[in-house]
């Protein structure tokens, strides 16, 4: 698509996805400057004027060599225009460090009093790497990440930039203030790290290094697992510490199994967190019986998929939780029908994106995420939720469900479609007919559905489908999504 970047464009209504796509089209026009060994990114910026229903765009290097897209848009094209109520789209996280007298783009955005910013991908450059987004959020800006399919387009076009930035990240230490997890841990030394956990990291990450070697310690320093004095950071203690909770009391995972007779068994997983997922899975498998199913083959397939979903959920909870939320610990609650994983901290993307299981990539704790990824325990390119969706769909399990119960992000994984129905509150369950309960079982495998799809799947008349979906909506189980009508009316599943 060819777009005139020198004029204001009209759009009949605000369409976030469309505006994201337009910003990517503009990004493709970026003119790279010579940065020596550093590869410049391609960046597109777009600003939406809600009252006028119009937008304007800019791209990196559009007017001057090396000028950032946001700078060109805000300061060269719109320097004399008030932007308080505007919405900004930028394909790359705004920078947070410039050489004086230059002002970082993240600060230019907050100086312009822009309150909503859509960000394509986080900037892997060590001088940014989440700091731009954090500055925006600290200033009260609502940050929304691009949809995952669009992020993949940005990543592909910026492949060389991302590879170059990741190489420099491994070799450089950020000059900015360390985050809480990057800070040196008090009163500990290398001897407080678990040899078993470190050996597991070396083995699973396919490293040809010994624990005592200088190369290995230098690697851990580059990863912010060790500080400049080769002593553990809080990152290091969480990942590999023998007793992480002696340093950060809310680390670790609390496990609870609730048996059918009303009894409970609890267990704390408060050792090195790189070992916790496998320990948790071994504990659950040993204590919870396999569900009965029609055939051994079907049962085995669903069981394997169920445990894959649980493992992925546990890893995500450890990696992405907010360790600054005091008094709250990651919890795993197991019954015969489901596993509920509670992770402290508000979600980094919208609940709608989480519920679709197609959430864009964003990491709260990059070092934890990277180490788990190197060990094959986490998806680093935003594929984790997509993998969960595929595993559930392939095996016929209900889709995992996300809710937020402040301060916890809650993930519920069900062992069967029947369990989705029996888990409903008695008050809600009493309001559903037998046929509606079967309809809810079927809906548990979907994130969205049209009225026509529901009618066809349940083999019922359109009028009956409308009654079913209306009842689900009344009970807060689904909501209308989009502007379709008749059989095209789309419903989004919002409760389990």
Automatic annotation (TrEMBL):
<dbReference type="InterPro" id="IPR036390">
    <property type="entry name" value="WH_DNA-bd_sf"/>
</dbReference>
<keyword id="KW-0067">ATP-binding</keyword>
<dbReference type="Pfam" id="PF13749">
    <property type="entry name" value="HATPase_c_4"/>
</dbReference>
<dbReference type="InterPro" id="IPR036388">
    <property type="entry name" value="WH-like_DNA-bd_sf"/>
</dbReference>
<keyword id="KW-0347">Helicase</keyword>
<dbReference type="GO" id="GO:0004386">
    <property type="term" value="F:helicase activity"/>
</dbReference>
<keyword id="KW-0547">Nucleotide-binding</keyword>
<protein>
    <submittedName>
        <fullName>ATP-dependent DNA helicase</fullName>
    </submittedName>
</protein>
<dbReference type="InterPro" id="IPR016193">
    <property type="entry name" value="Cytidine_deaminase-like"/>
</dbReference>
<dbReference type="InterPro" id="IPR038475">
    <property type="entry name" value="RecG_C_sf"/>
</dbReference>
<dbReference type="InterPro" id="IPR002125">
    <property type="entry name" value="CMP_dCMP_dom"/>
</dbReference>
<feature type="domain" description="CMP/dCMP-type deaminase">
    <location>
        <begin position="14"/>
        <end position="144"/>
    </location>
</feature>
<keyword id="KW-0378">Hydrolase</keyword>
<dbReference type="Pfam" id="PF18785">
    <property type="entry name" value="Inv-AAD"/>
</dbReference>
């Amino acid at each position: 698509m060819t777009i005139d970047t020198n004029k204001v464009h009209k759009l009949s209504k605000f369409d976030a996805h469309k505006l994201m796509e337009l910003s990517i089209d503009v990004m493709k026009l970026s003119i790279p400057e010579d940065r020596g060994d550093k590869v410049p990114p391609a960046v597109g910026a777009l600003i939406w004027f809600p009252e006028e229903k119009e937008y304007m765009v800019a791209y990196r290097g559009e007017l001057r060599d090396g000028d950032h897209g946001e700078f060109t848009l805000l300061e060269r094209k719109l320097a004399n225009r008030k932007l308080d109520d505007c919405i900004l789209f930028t394909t790359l996280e705004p920078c947070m460090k410039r050489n004086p007298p230059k002002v970082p783009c993240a600060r230019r955005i907050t100086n312009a009093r822009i309150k909503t910013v859509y960000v394509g991908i986080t900037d892997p450059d060590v001088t940014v790497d989440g700091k731009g987004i954090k500055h925006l959020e600290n200033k009260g800006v609502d940050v929304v990440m691009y949809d995952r399919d669009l992020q993949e387009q940005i990543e592909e076009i910026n492949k060389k930039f991302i590879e170059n930035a990741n190489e420099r990240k491994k070799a450089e230490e950020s000059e900015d203030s360390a985050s809480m997890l990057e800070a040196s841990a008090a009163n500990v030394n290398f001897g407080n790290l678990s040899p078993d956990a470190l050996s597991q990291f070396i083995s699973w990450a396919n490293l040809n290094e010994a624990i005592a070697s200088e190369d290995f310690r230098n690697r851990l320093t580059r990863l912010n697992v060790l500080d400049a004095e080769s002593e553990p950071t809080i990152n290091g203690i969480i990942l590999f510490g023998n007793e992480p909770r002696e340093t950060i009391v809310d680390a670790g995972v609390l496990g609870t199994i609730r048996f059918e007779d009303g009894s409970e068994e609890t267990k704390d997983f408060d050792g090195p967190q790189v070992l916790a997922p496998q320990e948790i899975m071994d504990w659950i498998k040993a204590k919870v019986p396999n569900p009965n199913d029609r055939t051994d083959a079907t049962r085995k397939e669903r069981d394997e998929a169920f445990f894959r979903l649980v493992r992925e959920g546990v890893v995500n909870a450890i990696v992405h939780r907010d360790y600054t939320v005091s008094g709250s610990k990651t919890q795993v609650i197991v019954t015969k029908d489901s596993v509920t994983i509670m992770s402290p901290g508000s979600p980094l993307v919208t609940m709608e994106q989480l519920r679709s299981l197609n959430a864009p990539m964003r990491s709260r704790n990059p070092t934890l995420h990277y180490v788990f990824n190197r060990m094959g325990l986490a998806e680093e390119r935003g594929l984790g939720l997509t993998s969960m969706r595929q595993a559930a769909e392939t095996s016929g399990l209900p889709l995992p469900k996300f809710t937020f119960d402040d301060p916890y992000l809650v993930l519920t994984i069900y062992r069967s479609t029947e369990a989705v129905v029996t888990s409903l509150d008695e008050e809600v369950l009493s309001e559903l007919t037998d046929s509606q309960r079967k309809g809810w079982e079927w809906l548990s495998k979907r994130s969205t559905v049209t009225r026509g799809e529901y009618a066809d799947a349940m083999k019922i008349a359109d009028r009956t489908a409308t009654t079913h979906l209306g009842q689900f909506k009344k009970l807060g189980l689904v909501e209308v999504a989009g502007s379709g009508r008749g059989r095209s009316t789309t419903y989004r599943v919002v409760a389990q």
